[in-house]
Amino acid sequence: MKLKSEFLNEIKARGFIYQNVDIEDLDQILLKNKISGYIGFDITSDSLHVGSLIQLMLLHWLDFYGHQSIALVGGGTTLIGDPSGKDQTRKILSKNDIDKNINNIKKTFDRFINIKKNSLIINNYDWLSKLNYIDFLREFGSKITLNRMLTFESVKNRLDREQPLSILEFNYMLLQAYDYLHLNKNYNCILQMGGSDQWGNILSGVDLIRKINKKNAFGITSPLITNSDGTKMGKTADGAIWLNKDKISSLDFFQFWRNVNDKDVSRFLYLFTKLPLSEIGKLSMLKNQEINEAKKILAYEVTKIVRGKEEAEEALEITSNVFSSKIVDERLPNIFQNKSNLKNEKFSLLDAIEKLNLVKSRSEIKRLVKSNGVKVNDIIFNHSNFSLKEFSDLNEIKITIGKKKIGIIKIN
């Protein structure tokens, strides 16, 4: 499939395209005109996580090539809950909670699309809240068949596992299709993008536009991004890798990317950085120990996009100090503790790791100690009583969890 337009060529070369609706026709339009395209985002939390990063990058590249990117926040649809790719019904949030989440998330979009110039953040509550249910069913209910909806993977998987799928969630598909119709009519939006789990919803929107607005509409999905071992991208033992700084520090965010599997480095450079394709090609050739340089670049570039250049440079400097120069950097997470508490064993390793917020639970800390996953001053800690008594005469103690988490106890 040969594509000529700049936007489609860019995202194809970087591996963003998985499924599409009439992409050759879209390509011809993009050669002659600027278009408007959108991606919808659930607002179930006060921050997006790295699972949304591929969609944010798609919006970025659309905006970068002079088109209008619309980040559609689901203030209305989140009140219902998207069943796509989910094993069970989502918790229903209040409108107040959703509005707070939207306010927190808006600043993330500013890093990917130019709101001041051309692109938009729109809330679908603005129109969905005004719908009359009877009128909606009369006008649109007959246009999307239950037979078609039952063929969608997101629905089939839930039903095959005999897990409940409520009428509430079925309505979500209708409303998302209506979102596309509304954006097509009011913003001349002709492209919806999303993850592969949104394929059925995108097709429904395309069909609705063609039947109601009598216009052509297009769709593109991106592949489901998993790690090389098959695990879900962005999910760790400590939870999700959030995009907002108040949910996870820039240092921990940087370290997540710095420690990805070697097999994932090339793919992630293409998807999650703005580096030129030729430079990524060279970095992708690095093997063995040299691949660590590519990982540093990946971590720096992604952190720069998500958190800003200053945060990225600070995270790079801290990690270089700690791991390359063996310098205890004062900007690492740290706590003060009285020497007598260590000597009298009133403050243990468990207390220290918990207060430094390096690990979620004390049971997890114990598991890590047993598996040699904790170091104190660069020596594996294996004391069954978790005592720090022998370190009490030092000025500070460095605690390392695995390869990427470090905290400092300052003794006074």
Give a verbal description of the structure.
The chain has 412 residues and is an alpha/beta fold. The protein folds into 3 domains: 6-222, HUPs (Rossmann fold, 3-Layer(aba) Sandwich), CATH 3.40.50; 249-324, Tyrosyl-Transfer RNA Synthetase (Orthogonal Bundle), CATH 1.10.240; 334-411, Structural Genomics Hypothetical 15.5 Kd Protein In mrcA-pckA Intergenic Region, Chain A. It has helices at residues 6-13, 23-32, 53-64, 95-109, 125-128, 133-141, 146-149, 153-160, 167-187, 199-213, 250-258, 265-272, 277-283, 291-307, 309-324, 339-343, 349-356, 362-370; strands at 19-21, 36-41, 68-73, 120-123, 189-195, 218-222, 235-236, 239-240, 334-337, 374-376, 379-380, 396-401, 405-411. The strands form 3 sheets. It has a 6-stranded mixed beta sheet, sandwiched between helices. α11 runs antiparallel to α14, α11 packs across α15 (309-324) and α14 (291-307) packs antiparallel against α15 (309-324). The longest helix has 21 residues, at 167-187. The chain starts with 5 loop residues before the first helix and ends with a strand. Residues 85-89 have low confidence and may be disordered.
